[in-house]
Amino acid sequence: MNEAAAKSRRFLTDDPAPPEVYEVGREIIHGVLDRAKPQFEAQGKSLSYSEWILDYFRVSAGRERPDKENYFITFDRTVPWSLFSDISAFVDVAANRLGDQEYSEIFGDVLEPGQIGILPAGWDALECRDTIFERALVWLFHHELGHLFQDHERIRKENAPEGVDITLFVDEMMSKSEALASDMRLSWVYHATEFAADHQALHYSIFYADAKQSVASAKDISKGSIWCLVCAVAYMFHFFFSDRLYADVLEVAEGSHPDPTMRLAMLTGHLVQLLDWKSVRVNAPNAPSLEDAEKIVSSAEAAVGVYWALTHADADKALKLTDVLGRLLKCQDSILKYQIRLASVWNELRPEIMKTYFGENRAHVMDVAPPAGGPSVGI
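The structure assignment produced for this chain is given below.
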């Protein structure tokens, strides 16, 4: 991608102030919102977007009342700036530090002529910054839409133990209430529905173009766009659940949200599978080969992991960088047991979800088979 093309895609100034970022963030969010509204209206429902003034990173989705069909998605007003400021720092590290010799063992096999650091060849730092920022917001909003389209709030209420009150909305804040203790049925239901929302968000996000275009065709899929999408999703999981990145991978569900590294591995595994679909491959001339896609995914995951360990981890934890990057490989037995149980729970829930699903494509609803012979990286 040449410099002229890069500038045509850029929608933020080189060094934007918070008001500009808020404005562009809202533009991106409302672009996705406007595209989703007709799907709600076709079912006699409504969808609105609002902002909290909590001044900390929080996102939720739900219904106003159980007897009403008024759905909402709410972000705290600080979400765009929180994302943008840290993504800017990440891109700076990726461009100016991660291409150094000390990281060649991690990134050496993906480096190409013309790259700036480890940024995709032909993409400059500002274009990567804006694209990752945009993809993060788009994926996050579509994740919430996945919860609404699949009626996860109802599914959670129906599977709650007697006497446990489940709120009318799905909140992305981690909860470890008594009802969501280790290996509780409700914990498994929460985990399954989070994976399902991840899955649906990926299907929507992969074809998203930019702030001036609601949706792109398969021809817009490229090595650079895939790298930015994976960086965006990897960053989201680190941002929300960084306190769990150094813990052991559990073989049972605990709390409201799954292990962030597990979510990322399963989602990017499905992304690679999706890029190999004939319908995508035929219509996406710039899509990476299956081998290249796996390298791009690994590079993006590692880049965010290294950045997070360098800039956010405690000093003693930063020394365990290899544990962050390879923790799933050390827990194969636990992962296998987790995935088998997850598949079982989801396959119980899915038929009920499909009865009321009202998204535009039923193929976006996660369909998962228990892993045979070993842990699966895709759903």
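Interim note for the steering committee: Strands lie at 46-52, 59-63, 70-76, 169-171. Residues 125-149 form the longest helix (25 residues).
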